[in-house]
From TrEMBL:
Span of domain Large ribosomal subunit protein bL25 L25: 7-94
Subunit structure: Part of the 50S ribosomal subunit; part of the 5S rRNA/L5/L18/L25 subcomplex. Contacts the 5S rRNA. Binds to the 5S rRNA independently of L5 and L18.
Gene transcribed to yield this protein: rplY
Protein's name according to its UniProt entry: Large ribosomal subunit protein bL25
Entry keyword set: Ribonucleoprotein, Ribosomal protein, RNA-binding, rRNA-binding
Length: 218
């Protein structure tokens, strides 16, 4: 089951740039809730509450309970606008979800047992995470906060593809339905960069005095 998190909100009556600016000066964040059979609603949230929530991974990949005086609507965060250089959230977009309708969203990938794998223990092997999140479809009640990938058996040369990810019940990766070309690599274990051979280094060094001597003869 998906974990939900409650965030208290208030109805916002005034709209426009001026009203939003006043909200931010008062320590709140303007936002909008849309989707479903209801009209879009303008709301405001405490910036401190939103800022603390935004430090957690679940804020971006979980069902959120927006509570307006006890009236709870289940939503997903769809967009967040941040100030270009201040630690300030400028605006949020939330989409309502229906328990009986599938949703499409991105969830983070958690990689475990990488350091204890044969590839992770090898000094000359580099493990690269090609993806850090994956787009899935599922019912809201099946939405995972993250998907775990166990790399404990990974050896050099191994490649973990999208189709090899063990998905929770009720969860699908729509990209895989588009064909084999979309079964991209998620994790790759390969040897690190090979240093130049000693012979090549010596030949390069030998070229230096020869070039200098040629210039001295001019």
């Amino acid at each position: 089951m998906a974990t939900t998190h409650e965030i208290k909100v208030q109805r916002r009556e005034d709209e426009g740039k001026g009203a939003s600016r006043r909200l931010r000066l008062a320590g709140n964040v303007p936002a909008v809730v849309y989707g479903g059979d209801l009209k879009p609603v303008s709301i405001e949230l405490s910036h401190n509450d939103v800022w603390l929530a935004s430090q957690h991974e679940w804020f971006y990949a979980s069902i959120l309970d927006l509570s307006l005086n006890g009236d709870v609507q289940k939503v997903l965060l769809r967009d967040m606008q941040r100030h270009p250089f201040k630690q300030q959230i400028m605006h949020l977009d939330f989409q309502r979800v229906n328990a009986n309708e599938a949703i499409r969203t991105a969830v983070p990938l958690h990689f475990v047992n990488e350091d204890t794998s044969p590839a992770g223990k090898a000094v000359d092997v580099v493990i690269t995470h090609e993806l850090n999140e994956v787009t899935i479809t599922c019912l809201p009640g099946d939405l995972p906060e993250f998907i775990e990938i166990d790399l404990g058996a990974m050896v050099v040369g191994d490649i973990v593809h999208l189709s090899q990810i063990k998905l929770p019940k009720g969860v699908e990766i729509p990209e895989l339905a588009l064909g084999a070309d979309h079964d991209v690599a998620v994790v790759v274990a390969k040897h690190g960069r090979v240093e130049a051979e000693p012979e090549e280094t010596e030949e390069a060094a030998a070229d230096v005095p020869a070039t200098k001597a040629a210039k001295d003869d001019e």
